[in-house]
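Response to reviewer comment R2.3. The reviewers asked that we include at least one raw input/output pair. We reproduce the pair for WD40 repeat-like protein here without editing.
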Amino acid sequence: TIYGHRDRVWSVAFSPDGKRIVSGSEDKTIRLWDAETGAALEQPLMGHYAGVISVVFSPDGKRIASGSYDYAIRMWDAETGAAIGGPLGGHNGWVNSVAFSPDGRRLASGLEDKMIQFWDAETGAVIGEPLATHDSSVFSVAFSPDGKRVASACDDKTIRMWDVETAATIGEPLVGHDDSVNSVAFSPDAKRIVSGSVDGTIRIWDLETGTAIGEPLTGHDDWVNSVAFSPDGRRIASGSTDETIRMWDVETGAALGKPLIGHDGSVNSVAFSPDGRRIASGSTDETIRMWDVE
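Raw output as returned:
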């Protein structure tokens, strides 16, 4: 167990080389950790004026982007911990989710004000107009592996797909959850996405047809806050308000083993290591935990 934050941990992510973990917390800080030892690598990264909801490494591992309740995005040097430029502002609500494009040139943000915004990751300049089709807060955004599409998960119970170049919606919204959709992620082959919802279920979707594959995955006793595909695309990890993490077989939808129990609070974020051998989780209990996948 990794201790250091002084309030709930909202988000965790591995560096591309798997050697570091970044975390964002309600304590307004971002922290970097050694993924092998759990040791803190830097002093806390400070600059946000409210809780940090989302953190992510750039694909080259040199930068970190963070989104916060303070309505701003900040960029950080992953080696030194120094802030890069000023905050990316202009939002009218919380920045619930940030995601880098696979080439590292763009950043997408999902916002409380129902919008999705693209940014130039090098200059911090806004790219185009906000994408405004959702009817409520956007809780999660994710780029496809080829960088051509973005998926967004929303409080309006839907998932939408967007063309990055044209900013147009692709197809109809994916409808199937009975409550807010908290998290969305692409499979490594970009043929599927997975979503987790306040309704306590996980759904897998076929991106060619825009339909759900099979029945909802059930087993959690409360909200599903975070979902992630393993790097080989064979497994899904999910974190829940029921304080557990579960793993699932993508092809069969079956739960793999028993729930992973250890946190004393809601599991807000889960992430696979790049080699797929470990899962990192961040929790309301103020800790980060590491799990052996096998």
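Residues 143 and 150 are 4 Å apart (CA to CA). The mean pLDDT is 95. Further pairs are available on request from the corresponding author.
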